[in-house]
């Protein structure tokens, strides 16, 4: 059977590419710290030695549209083009051509249907920055075949948090039963609290740092009960109108499993939003744990959960109490 | 509110550089042309017979009024991305990075702490 060697859940940020590839004197002040953390995070994937990447994201109205919008969709192609004109225009993200693992796409699709997850399918899917951003950050050589999975975090009514988690659990079972000797890594991106196109966008911090504190604790401890008790579509909207991308991180936690502590956790307050980089090693090896420890030393990250009681969040509690 | 039709406008303009340039230069004429050439078509052959803007929607689009569009449930992502395409470069050159995005937030400031208009359809 295939081996799931790593699960990565991270935020994606389309500014990263330009911020870290512009001439030095044109880079924003936060670029160096950001790049150091991302390149350390990359090492946690490299240590998993993947052959195939199962990638979870969400199309941002680049291809999928309101005349026929799927809740969950899988790509089933040997090749994927990536990056749309308006992403090049706004973010300077280059175009890519990625190989697809059609065998795992086919198996994944059939097995999901067999488990009553009625996924839509695309045979002409073009990949957007929800999947290209993590390629840029954790696998910039773009040299591995992918299986892309898209979710609806954008077009209400949305599937429930419980459903996102259940899809993650199903994907885990399917990867574990995939008849192959390949090593698979699952990489999904979404958001912590985030505001786009509303009054709280591009502020000094993300719109709800204390949601982020809870979210990082819940995800990094696999605390599905706390998430299902506390996170609803309405509560996410209260934390920022685009916070529903958190459900893709929840899906990844579903792949890792309930109560499973993450092996690498990092975050970065990037003014208008908080970045988060999390890795689980489902079949831990000493080499993987050593790689995570080295990366954590470089990035000042943690090799285990980060709790909401962490002193890093104190300043936001004070602010909220004052308010 | 024909939210779908407004969103269709934002979506199909944003994905095409020629339409973006046209909408920036002459929004009112672009809205008229778009309704004839794009809005009423499901694909190059099939027409959709029943889609149309209200007078208020047409006026908001013809005046680049993203505050009105937000307040009437246009999708926040489309509403942000297209107006970034129109204004970001000029604002950034004059006032620094993210100046347009910051101004947009300020113009919507009266919604802070309230439930935003729903983008659901």
Automatic annotation (TrEMBL), chain A:
InterPro entries: Xdiol_dOase_suB. SUPFAM superfamilies: LigB-like. Residues 9-258 form the Extradiol ring-cleavage dioxygenase class III enzyme subunit B domain. GO terms for molecular function: ferrous iron binding; oxidoreductase activity, acting on single donors with incorporation of molecular oxygen, incorporation of two atoms of oxygen. Keywords: Dioxygenase, Oxidoreductase. It comes from the Bacteria. This is Protocatechuate 4,5-dioxygenase beta chain. It comes from Nesterenkonia sandarakina.
From TrEMBL, chain B:
It comes from the Bacteria. InterPro entries: LigA_sf. This is Uncharacterized protein. It comes from Nesterenkonia sandarakina. The lineage of its organism: Bacteria, Bacillati, Actinomycetota, Actinomycetes, Micrococcales.
């Amino acid at each position: 059977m295939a081996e799931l060697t790593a699960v990565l859940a991270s935020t994606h940020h389309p500014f990263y590419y330009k911020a870290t590839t512009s001439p030095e004197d044109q880079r924003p002040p936060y670029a160096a710290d950001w790049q150091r953390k991302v390149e350390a995070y990359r090492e946690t994937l490299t240590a998993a030695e993947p052959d195939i990447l199962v990638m979870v994201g969400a199309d941002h109205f680049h291809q999928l549209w309101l005349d026929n919008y799927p809740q969950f969709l899988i790509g089933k192609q040997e090749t994927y083009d990536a990056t749309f004109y308006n992403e090049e225009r706004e973010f300077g993200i280059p175009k890519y051509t990625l190989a697809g693992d059609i065998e795992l796409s086919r198996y994944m699709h059939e097995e999901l249907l067999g488990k009553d997850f009625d996924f839509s399918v695309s045979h002409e899917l073009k990949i957007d920055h929800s999947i290209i951003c993590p390629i840029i950050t954790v696998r910039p050589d773009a040299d591995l075949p992918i299986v892309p999975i898209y979710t609806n975090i954008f077009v209400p009514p949305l599937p429930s948090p419980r459903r996102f988690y259940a899809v993650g659990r199903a994907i885990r079972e399917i990867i574990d039963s995939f008849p192959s000797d390949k090593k698979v890594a699952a990489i999904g991106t979404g958001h912590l609290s985030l505001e786009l196109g509303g009054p709280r966008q591009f502020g000094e911090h993300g719109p709800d740092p204390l949601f982020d504190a809870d979210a990082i604790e819940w995800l990094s401890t696999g605390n599905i009960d706390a998430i299902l008790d506390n996170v609803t579509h309405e509560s996410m909207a209260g934390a920022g109108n685009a916070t529903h991308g958190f459900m893709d991180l929840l899906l990844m936690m579903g792949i890792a499993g309930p109560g499973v502590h993450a092996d690498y956790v990092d975050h970065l307050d990037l003014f208008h939003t908080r970045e988060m980089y999390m890795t689980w090693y489902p079949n831990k090896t000493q080499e993987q744990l050593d790689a995570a420890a080295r990366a954590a030393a470089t990035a000042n990250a943690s090799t285990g959960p980060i709790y909401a009681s962490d002193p890093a969040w104190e300043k936001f509690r004070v602010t909220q109490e004052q308010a | 509110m024909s939210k779908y039709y407004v969103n269709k406008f934002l979506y199909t303009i944003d994905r095409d550089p020629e339409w973006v340039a046209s909408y920036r230069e002459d929004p009112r004429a672009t809205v008229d042309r778009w309704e004839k050439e794009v809005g009423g078509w499901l694909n190059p052959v099939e027409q959709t017979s029943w889609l149309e803007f209200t007078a208020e929607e047409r006026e908001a689009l013809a005046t680049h009024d993203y505050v009105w569009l937000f307040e009437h449930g246009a999708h926040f992502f489309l509403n942000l991305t297209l107006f970034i395409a129109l204004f970001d470069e000029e604002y950034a050159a004059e006032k620094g990075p993210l100046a347009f995005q910051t101004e947009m937030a300020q113009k919507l400031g009266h919604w802070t702490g309230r439930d935003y208009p729903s983008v659901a359809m």
